[in-house]
Structure formats: structure tokens, C-alpha cells
Amino acid sequence: MTFPKLLQQAGYETALIGKWHLKTTPTGFDHWKILRGQGNYYTPDLHDERGEEHFTGYTTDVLTDQAMETLENRDASKPFCMMVQHKAPHRNWMPNIKHLDALEDVEIPIPETFYDDYKTRSAAAKEADMRIEDMYLSLDMKLQPEYYEKETGTGGNADWAPRVPDGWQAKYERFTPEQQEAWDAHYHEVNEEFKHTDFSERELVEWKYQRYIKDYLLCVMSVDENIGRLLDYLDETGLAENTLVVYTSDQGFYLGEHGWYDKRFMYEESLSMPLVMRYPGTIPAGQVSDEIVLNLDFAPTFLEFAGTAIPREMQGRSMRPLMTGAGKVDWRDSMYYHYYEYPHGWHEVKRHYGIRTHRYKLIHFYHDIGVWELYDLENDPNEVQNLYGKPEYADVASKLKAELRALQKEYGDTDIEFDD
What distance in Å separates the CA atoms of residue 182 and residue 100, rounded to the nearest whole number? Predict the structure, then answer.
């Protein structure tokens, strides 16, 4: 059961353009053109029901071109739903050629928790393999093999590290000759700087941070640019006034906070997701809500706006009452989270689940570690002081555990360790 299938049944023309990253063929869409797996930043291969098509441009631009072409060719007699899912800014952060020098003379400030020592927390934070200092010189820093003797870190997966030069080289070889020439002109200076600089340990990690964060932000620059193109298209075609536009992501991401990149943990930077919605005449502009909404709420919200019934088995709730100013809404006071991939996959993040309220967060790391963490988000928004076990917070912890257990029962996630 998915909301595109339900919208299809309600007469909508549905389309999906971009990253898919599932092992199945898309269903519920009248039109789809996808990147298989993570896709590539340059010269992407897009797949649809007819096969594969090769493009020579920058993927964020190509996907937007395809989205606008699909909108142009839609059945104008039907309402439509389109999902445009960008690869960017997924690792390994390869900016558009035209943006490579945009931040060249800018020094990005280091987050205040960049040198976090994790001293009040469990071993989970210390043992995670997602520190910027351990990023690959090849895949992440874009250094060519002749400019360094060996990798300086595990890159999130020590077993994969020996294959990194091949993986990076394959991405590099996707460039057209013109793209490669422009890329080399920019990254030659990066390669030379690394080769001829005798970095201290601290200088090296800060150098890696600047390379990482600039490439990340430049990838986002292209996303911003192309969102603008889509919004302009809606304006120019007169569709804007009757189209709900939603900008969101799959999760947040560490941009140096706690010394990390990637996601997975229940800490704020990766737990929080961007969400901006626009629907002229229905959603008053300029609103900001501090209510706890979830990705579970997307499907019910879209269905209600479309005037379609919301199936009882959907666990989320429509956000429409929060956005339309329909008076006080009885909304949730807490949310549930569960990460269970360890020890498979990347980055060595321990299994954990937890509850977040407006003020507090309680996390339980389990499986091969049995540790609780409690944070007061009002007084400690950076989550560096674990309060679990402190007598003055015993009542808070007890109440949160009871509410956490209730949420696990509500969502049917009770077959896990729960150690008081």
C-alpha cells in the first residue's frame, strides 16, 4: 500500500523521477525514470520500463530536465502527483563543474561540537566509524593515487577500503573529456596542496572538513538551483496556485557535528528532517510549527489534500489541520525511533531505539551493548551531557520509559530487548 497507488486509483497521473535505491521496479506510477542504486553524479544512466538511457550532463540538472519534460507531456485533464528524488547530496559529493570554485575563498566555520570527546556517553558514540578524520582520501577527498601513499582512515567500512581507488576511478572515468578537463583543473590544486603540505593531525582533519563541507554545500547549491527551475515552471504554466509543493528529505545528516558525517544515530542532527510545504490559498504563508511530525505522516497528508480516503492501516496522521489554521489540534507529544542495521552495512552504529518529546530524548543502545542515554534538549541542545542515572532525573527517565514502551506496542515493535 502506497499513496501513489491510491492517488492513481483516484484518477491522478503519477510520476517518479530520480533516485530509487530499492531492489524492485517502481509500482504505482504511470511514468517513471530512475537511477538504480545510488546512481552517479555525472553522465547518469536512467531506467524506465523501456530500458536504459544514457545522459551526458550533471545528474541534478538531468533529473530536473526529465521532470519538466514529464510535466510538459502529462495528461492535462488529470490532476498529477510527481516525486522528484535527487541523488544529491549523497556521498561522495561531486559538485557541478560550474560551481566548483564558488566557495574557493570561503572558510566554513567548524561546528562547536567538532572535537566532541563523547565522555558522558556510551561506547556507541566512540565506536561509530563515521568520523571526518577517517574519510577516504580517494573517494571523499577526490585525490588521485599518485598524490598519497595510503588511505588515512577506514571511510566507514574498513573491509571496503582496498577497493576504494577502483570505485573512485570508475566515477572519475564517467566524465566526458570536457568535464574531466574542468574537474582536473580544479582538483589539481587540491591534490598538490595535500601532497606538499606537512599536516599535523589536527590540521589534516580540519583540511578534510573543509574539502567535505564545501563539496557537500556545492551539491546542495545545484539542488537549490533546480528546485527553483521547477517552481518557476509551475509559476509560468499557471500550475502553482493549485499545486501542493513539498520539499523534504529521507533524514538529516552530520556536517561536522560531533566530528561526524553520515546519519543513523538518534541524535538531533540526523533525526531532524527538512520539511517545507506550499499550497497557495490553503496553507497560509510564513507559518512555522514546532509540532512533532513524522515521515509516517506524509501519505495521510497527501491523501487528505487530494480528497482521498486514508486507509486505517496507515500509522501516520494527516498534517493538514496543523497547516490550515483550523484551530487547536490534538497532536502527538512524542515520537519513536529505531535503528537496527548493526553489525551489517556501514559506519558501525550500534542498534538503538528511543523516544523524543518536545524537551527530552531517551535512547536505549542494545544487542551487544546495554546502555541508556537521556538528554534535556532545552538545556543541552547539542546533546553532550548524558543525564541518565542522575537521581534528579530518575522520574523523567521512568516516565519516558513508560511512554516509550507504549509507543513500541502501538507500532508493534516489542520483540526487542528492553532493559530497565
Answer: 9
Which residues of the chain does CATH 3.40.720.10 include? Answer: 3-91+219-323
Give the H or E element holding residue 214: helix 201-236
In terms of C-beta density within 10 A (0-12 exposed, 13-18 middle, 19 or more buried), how is residue 299 classed? Answer: buried
End-to-end CA distance of the chain: 36
C-alpha cell at 12: 491522478
Mean pLDDT of 231-255: 96
Do 381 and 334 touch, CB atoms closer than 8 A?
no
Query: Can you state the angle between helices 201-236 and 177-195, rounded to 10 degrees?
Result: 150
Convert the pLDDT of each residue in 6-15 to its tens digit. Answer: 999 999 999 9
Question: Which three cell numbers mark 261?
Answer: 558525517
Give the C-alpha separation, 318 to 276, whole Å: 15
Pick the CATH number of 3-91+219-323 from 3.40.462.10, 3.40.720.10, 3.30.1330.40, 3.50.50.60: 3.40.720.10
Beta-bridge mates of residue 52? 47
**Contact (Cβ atoms closer than 8 angstroms) between residue 4 and residue 29:** yes
Nearest to 257 by CA among 382, 348, 124, 125: 382
Q: Is the model's pLDDT at 163 over the cut of 90? A: no
pTM over 0.85: yes
For the chain, how big is the Rg over CA atoms in Å?
23
pLDDT on residue 328: 74
CA distances from 365 to 155, 244, 253, 407, 409 (A): 23, 39, 20, 17, 18
C-alpha torsion angle, residues 33, 214, 183, 248 (rounded to 10): 10
- Choose which CATH entry (3.30.930.10, 3.90.550.10, 3.55.50.30, 3.30.1120.10) describes domain 334-411: 3.30.1120.10
Q: For residues 407 and 333, is the Cβ–Cβ distance under 8 A?
A: no
Cell numbers linked to 420: 530497565
Q: In 196-227, which positions are buried (b, 16+ CB within 10 angstroms) versus exposed (e)?
A: eeeeeeeebbbbbbebbbbbbbbbbbbbeebb
